[in-house]
């Protein structure tokens, strides 16, 4: 039962990546394109040396298809993710990724033929209810006001789109891992993303490139923690169902809410923490299904 350790490690590393990313976007004045680029480019510092210690696997028939489709989608989500945490509170945007296990109930059966059972329904109810609690302070404006508040907020809306795309790419990751190996797949993804995001940054954010050297203390940890999270996640999904791993990884949303309050002094901690705990419980129930 090693997979829970790897999945929980992925959650912790991803949360640390979020904290450094928010700091870079808020304090260092970096834009989402530069931060997204650093997320993947500096992860290669950790991942590329691993090629010296692993056996290069035989690449299956679906490896390149998975790499280009998954890599393209994750290039998009990297930018959307940074846009989300740039424009809204960390404690409000990060909980939206707990919707990924909900979407996996639809995408996993279609892509990798993994079928959860009736517990998934209870998990869905908890995730939806938890998202309602996140903005409970809006309740006085009407029963559906908390949902409307989430939709109005640019950050949560973008992160919800990220959660849906991740429900697809998580399954593609499993195909990629099965057609190579966990660590090799993580390295191949990082190289693909670094190339595509470098091109996008040079087109969309050429003026910000000059600020990179002065902010390496912020940018390098973003990539390192991203690389650690990727290796832990790919190892975990090679050992068990995708939905199990992603559900445990989403426990990092609790860390995101707490860091938003203690580090970035965000308000509304009570309802946001209560909401994310309910959402994580729903994600775990979906995993148990």
Could you outline the blueprint of secondary structure elements for this entry?
Layout: H1 3-26, H2 32-41, H3 43-47, H4 63-87, H5 90-93, H6 100-111, H7 119-134, H8 145-152, H9 154-178, H10 182-204, H11 216-237, H12 242-249, H13 252-262, H14 269-288
Structure characteristics:
289 residues; mainly alpha; 14 helices
Description:
The protein is mostly helical and 289 residues long. 74% of the residues lie in helices and 0% in strands. It has 14 helices and no strands. The protein has helices at residues 3-26, 32-41, 43-47, 63-87, 90-93, 100-111, 119-134, 145-152, 154-178, 182-204, 216-237, 242-249, 252-262, 269-288. Helix 7 (119-134) packs antiparallel against helix 14 (269-288). The longest helix is centred in the first third of the chain and has 25 residues, at 63-87. The mean pLDDT is 84.
Number of strands: 0
What is the count of helical runs?
14
Number of domains: 1
First and last CA, distance: 17 Å
Largest sheet: none
Rg for CA atoms: 18 Å
Helix-strand category: mainly alpha
Strand content: under 5%
Taken in chain order, the helices and strands follow as HHHHHHHHHHHHHH
The 3D shape can be described as globular
Helical amount among residues, as a percent range? over 70%
pLDDT average, as an integer?
84
Unreliable stretches covering 5 or more consecutive residues: none
In short:
The protein is mainly α and 289 residues long.
């Amino acid at each position: 039962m090693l997979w829970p350790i790897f999945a929980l490690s992925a959650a912790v590393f991803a949360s640390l990546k979020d904290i450094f990313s928010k700091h870079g976007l808020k304090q260092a004045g970096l834009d989402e394109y530069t931060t997204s680029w650093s997320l993947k480019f500096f992860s290669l510092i950790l991942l590329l040396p691993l090629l010296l210690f692993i056996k290069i696997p035989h690449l299956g028939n679906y490896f390149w298809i998975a790499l280009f489709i998954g890599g393209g989608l994750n290039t998009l989500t990297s930018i959307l993710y940074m846009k989300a945490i740039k424009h809204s509170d960390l404690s409000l945007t990060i909980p939206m990724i707990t919707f990924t296990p909900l979407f996996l109930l639809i995408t996993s059966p279609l892509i990798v033929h993994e079928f959860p059972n009736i517990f998934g329904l209870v998990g869905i109810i908890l995730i939806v209810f938890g998202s309602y609690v996140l903005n409970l302070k809006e309740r006085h404006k009407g029963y559906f006001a908390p949902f409307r508040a989430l939709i109005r907020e640019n950050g949560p809306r973008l992160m919800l789109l990220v959660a849906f795309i991740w429900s697809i790419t998580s399954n593609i990751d499993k195909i990629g891992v099965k057609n190579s190996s966990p660590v090799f797949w993580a390295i191949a993804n990082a190289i693909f993303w670094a190339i595509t995001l470098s091109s996008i940054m040079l087109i969309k954010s050429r003026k910000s490139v000059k600020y990179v050297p002065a902010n390496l203390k912020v940018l390098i940890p973003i990539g390192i923690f991203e690389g650690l999270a990727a290796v832990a996640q790919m190892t975990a999904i090679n050992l068990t169902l995708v939905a199990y791993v992603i559900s445990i990884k989403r426990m990092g949303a609790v860390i995101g809410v707490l860091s938003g309050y203690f580090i970035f002094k965000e308000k509304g901690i009570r309802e946001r923490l209560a909401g994310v705990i309910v959402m994580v419980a729903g994600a775990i129930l979906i995993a148990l299904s």
